[in-house]
Amino acid sequence: MTTNFQVDSSFSQHRNKCIQARTPVWLQSNGEKYQCAITHAPLALLFYFWAYFYFGFLPFSYTFSDSCWNETIKYTNFPLPTAIFPVEYDLNITTYLPGYNWKADERNMSYLGSVSIRMEVRQEMDKIVLHSSNLTIIDAKVINSDNNLEIKSWTINDSNQFLILSLNKIVNPGENLEVFITFGGYLREDRKGYYITKSTKPTGEPMINAVTQFEATSARFMVPCFDEPQFKATWQVKLTYPTGAVGLTNTIDMESIEDGDFTSTTYKRTVKMSSYLLAIFVGDVQFKETTTKRGLRIRVYADPKNIESVDMALNASRLAVDGFEELFGIDFPMEKIDFVSVFDFEAGAMENWGLIIHRAELILGTDKEIVEVVIHELAHQWFGNLVTMKYWYQTWLNEGFATFMTAIGQTFIDGNFSQDTVSCAWTTPHMSLLKFHISQQEEARLKDRYRPLRSVAFDKDGSVTIQSIYYSKGSSFIRMLEKIVGTLNFYEAMRNYLSQNMYSNVKEDYLYSALEAVWKTNTNNETTLSISEFAECWTNQNSYPTVFATRTPEGVVLTQNREAPIEKNYTNYDECGYKWDIPIWYQVAGEGSHELVWFKKDQYELEIRTEKTIIVNAESYGYYDVIYDDVSYQSIARELENNPTLYSMSTKLRLLLDLESNAYTQMIAPHSLVLIANALRNDEFPIVQEYAQTILKTTEFMINRLNEQNNEDLKIIKGFSTNTSKVLRKFYSNPSEQFGDYFKRNFKSDKEFCETLRNERNEEVTNQLVDWLNTNDSSGRKHIMGFLMFCAKNKDKVRGLVFDPSFDWTALEKSRNIQFLKILNRRNIYETREFRKFPSNEEYISRKTIIRIES
Ligand SMILES: [Zn+2]
């Protein structure tokens, strides 16, 4: 999945809490709910004959017992019991959408489903426990080979989102069972499960489409199933929908039968996969098509009005699939890949196997970001879909790899990739690769405060929310692994890892042993490092180390500490004591190559003996930051002034980024930042030059905010900027007209606007804007929020807005709000002191989620 919601995504979860199970009127005959079949004999009879037509036999074991008591079963853990595993699902879904020939009746905007699940019993049991939530269960029955099995009762366990079918006898391992469940519900409106997404016809008329979004745990909102990644099974889907609509699912269609107002299409059985990857779309769309080198069909579907805007996505996906198939040595295993553009989507896009759903603005048009998202979702077809995490604890493997592969995928599209120059493409510093990885490290550092990589944020009913840290930190950690074992070894190990684990589930150790195996073979067993031991502290602890480098007469002494002032109880993992085994890549001034030495967590300090200056974390390979003493900064600055080519581009960039973040959190004096930025202001690499100059511009902003007027530093930065607004403007792209109008009417410049907000006397402007943000007019929202965050003197109102669950974030989510959310995240750095009064994430978490580290 590509997340588009970079702040704590439990915001939206909280908002959606009010959505309860509602049984569609047409399923509530006689005003009663179908929780127990016996009270609804007419419908049960209907099912009886319906089953005959669908499954070709009469369900003899079905009994009209009225034993639907509420058995109290306590489950203290969210994971499903593993006594029984699904093997094959047959799913039928009839969707009643308006806007087509059928005369919409009381069934409108609802759906009716039936599922048969063939299962394998692995442990003795007398209860089938599967997931189901917010569904109307109409009926359930079970058969075995002896035809002597019955469901004694069934129970809905809301606190765990379980549907528990109690059997009339104990079933033994090795037996095969088949369960039939009929169910239904309204199409949801909260972008989870099977829900409504709106679009507009070219004529301007509104259209309603239906689409699914299941990751992490929302498949259970559409169909009772084993909704955890490790319960892989095949799915055969049959969709019935109003004639004229397009019906799509993961696989290619085999047969369509039109029967008056409705059409039924049967699709090919999927490969073995996790339930969160199942997907359905029904609605009014058209497509454009292409094929890959080996003839795989790729289509991009969009509403008729926008179908001409899909060419870039179509072209990028073709090149990326060709590239990934070659790189991984494994062909995409199904007959087609479809992309669908929808207007209402919680995430950026979702990698459903063979049916990738994108938020419209992340697939229509020619924005660079579209290509990145397309590549990310395609990388998932291997990392995530083919090889899947065992449980949600390993989600970082999915998202980390898909993010990591985005930069490689970009080279397929740019034409910079060629299999003949494998070593070249992957080991030569490639500008876009470097920029990408460094930006991922930066993003990770902004977020890496509360949750370790190996963590799951459970809601209290067992729902799981995908965390943004999995992406950037996951990718940065994977890059560190790559650099430790060597790039070519790394890709060889990746191919082995994928081919050894296809169609199954993995824990982290599977990856580590694949890496170790190749590494040891190719280095003739010289290495003794255990990757799993190394990884333990990086994946189970939040935060990251800061390495302090102090110049002594003999050399440079390194010590380690964690960067952020984090309360320890954010994680309950104590094994590492907030220390890490750190791979120290360092470069001695003037020497082109860099060395790797290990700074182990039980080492008090590490000394590198040299008279020359050294830079630690050369090439920005490592996910940690470095703080030098003043003497070192002075000599580094001097050397850079004399010879700017002493260090590589990424080493210099790393130096600047570490300086910047540590100056903002007051770990170092702004003076050191000014010194180095000034030395690099005319660097040979435009990106370094640009960044150094930006820092000189922003430093004034920082010095002013810290009230540390330093005349010398201000003299240096004079000429680069005295205008805070220039910096701010960087964060607020896409100004909207409405905001622009307001702005022009009231202020000469954004600087003046910001100053006004800061001025206590004019607090009514803040109040006005906060009131306006609470109205339905969403235009310019993100800009206003950004200004309020940075400039408003009285931030209490703004804080209230950000953490007020009733605040309507829909407009923000719909807008391209990534930029805005980045601003929100940046508060950790830019506003460390001022924002300390924010409700801490911990309080927020304790209200909503439980953080667990797998033992
Ligand atoms: Zn993803």
From TrEMBL:
Q: How is the cofactor bound?
A: Binds 1 zinc ion per subunit.
Record-marked site positions (Transition state stabilizer): Y471
- Keywords for this entry? Aminopeptidase, Glycoprotein, Hydrolase, Membrane, Metal-binding, Metalloprotease, Protease, Signal-anchor, Transmembrane, Transmembrane helix, Zinc
Q: What is its EC number?
A: 3.4.11.-
From the UniProt record, which GO molecular function terms apply? metalloaminopeptidase activity; zinc ion binding
Which stretches make up the Peptidase M1 membrane alanine aminopeptidase domain? Answer: 313-538
- The residue ranges of the Aminopeptidase N-like N-terminal domain are 86-277
Q: Name one GO cellular component term.
A: membrane
Q: Where in the cell is it found?
A: Membrane
Q: What residues bind Zn(2+), as annotated? A: H376, H380, E399
Cofactor(s) annotated in UniProt: Zn(2+)
Q: Where is the active site?
A: E377 (proton acceptor)
Concerning its family, UniProt says: Belongs to the peptidase M1 family.
Output this protein's name: Aminopeptidase
Species assigned in the record? Caenorhabditis briggsae
